[in-house]
Design a protein that fits this description.
The chain has about 140 residues and is of the alpha+beta class. It has one helix and seven strands. It has a domain of about 70 residues. Strand 1 and strand 2 form a beta hairpin. The longest helix is centred in the N-terminal third of the chain and has 23 residues. The radius of gyration is 40 Å and the shape is rod-shaped.
């Protein structure tokens, strides 16, 4: 088969020229009016103060901090060899507190911050800061 070199050379050069022109056309930036007015500022993120607006109102976690003067003493009971003193809150007797291992625990076994105590043979002592209350054992 005989190849026509001038035609083949013209074909290759025209294809290279066409590829070069297409490549240059793709590299040009054409400003589009749709994208001209976009702001480069970040989105507005509102800051919330106070309660989380996305948490339901019935699930607000109440602070376990109370005053030990608001507690009513009910007695000591033993589980194994460990003594536990039982208390209720005067505002709502359904709210119960337990003194065990020298720490006062509220509902769901959450320790009450800042309250320590001791159970001896003759009395039960609760200490919160400078306030100290001694309950005689029943």
């Amino acid at each position: 088969m005989k190849v026509n070199y001038p035609f083949f050379l013209l074909f290759v050069v025209s294809n290279l020229l066409l590829i070069r022109v297409e490549g240059m056309a793709q590299q040009q930036d054409v400003p589009e009016p749709v994208f001209m007015n976009f702001s480069i500022q970040p989105l507005y993120v509102p800051s919330y103060h106070g309660r989380d607006p996305f948490r339901p109102l019935d699930n607000i976690q109440r602070s376990p901090e109370i005053s030990i003067s608001e507690l009513d003493y009910h007695g000591v009971l033993y589980i194994g060899n460990s003594p536990m003193a039982l208390f209720t809150w005067r505002g709502n007797t359904a709210v119960q507190y337990t003194l065990k291992y020298r720490k006062l625990y509220g509902g769901e076994d959450k320790p009450v911050d800042g309250v320590v105590g001791d159970i001896t043979d003759s009395d039960v002592v609760l200490v919160q800061g400078e306030q100290k209350i001694v309950y005689p054992r029943k």
